[in-house]
Amino acid sequence: MQHDVIAFIASGLMLMVYYAYLGFSSRRHPETSVHALNAKLRERWVAMVMGSDKRDILAVQTLRNSVMAANFMASTSILLIIGTLNTGEKIGAWLMQWHTLAVGGTYSSVSWQIKLGLLLLVFAVAFFCFSMAIRFFNHVGYMINLSGGTADPLLYQQTCAYLNRAGRYYTYGTRSFFMSLPLIMWFLGAYFLLLATAILIAGLAVLDKVPR
């Protein structure tokens, strides 16, 4: 149990350091951040749609695709929650029998329940984020078709803010799925959690940079 606690704290610190560095780097060099680039591209898209009277179909199709993608991911989150609840007890029993896999610690029913609870929490957070993304995408669908276009700065800025918030919620939901991978590996032992976290951070470092 002690090894699990130490590994969990170390894993959390690794992720916090990475995101602190990512935030600092994005503020100092926004041109290298894929998140900053995506936000600018969404703002340009809003300006294009609102500045033209012939982009209504394009706006509807693009937002519909975004809503469908977020809806699919939200449904996947629910399925993962149900699947985890249905198979969690069987997995726990299997791991208790094969306790020799517990590198860097031993298994107990308490630690297994905590790990399972954290995994369910991550999937629940993903569902919430994708649901909120759908909500803001729907709001953008109404706002972007209002008259005025970029001639109304307040409407334009509010539409961009809603669309970027929807994009951020979608990103948070996707990152929640990514965060579930170290938690799944944690069932095999504390060292597997640290290894999976290090691999995840290496992968995120590539995804968070603008492709060249």
Please explain how this structure is put together.
The protein has helices at residues 2-28, 34-50, 56-97, 109-143, 153-186, 190-207. By secondary structure, it is an all-alpha fold. It has one domain (2-207). The mean pLDDT is 86.
Name the features:
212 residues; elongated; 6 helices; mainly alpha
Q: How many helices?
A: 6
Q: Provide the structure class.
A: mainly alpha
- Low-confidence region ranges: none
Provide the number of structural domains. Answer: 1
The multimeric state of the shown protein is: single chain
Q: What gross morphology would you assign? A: elongated
Helicity range: over 70%
Query: What is the count of β-strands?
Result: 0
β-strand amount: under 5%
Rg, rounded, reads: 21 Å
Q: How do the SSEs run, as a string of H and E?
A: HHHHHH
C-alpha termini separation: 44 Å
Q: Give the rounded overall mean pLDDT.
A: 86
State the major sheet.
none
Task: Give a nutshell description of this structure.
By secondary structure, this protein is mainly alpha-helical. The chain has helices at residues 2-28, 34-50, 56-97, 109-143, 153-186, 190-207. It has one domain (2-207).
Question: Layout of helices and strands, plus pairs?
Answer:
Blueprint: H1 2-28, H2 34-50, H3 56-97, H4 109-143, H5 153-186, H6 190-207
Helix pairs in contact: 1-6, 2-5, 3-4, 3-5, 4-5, 5-6
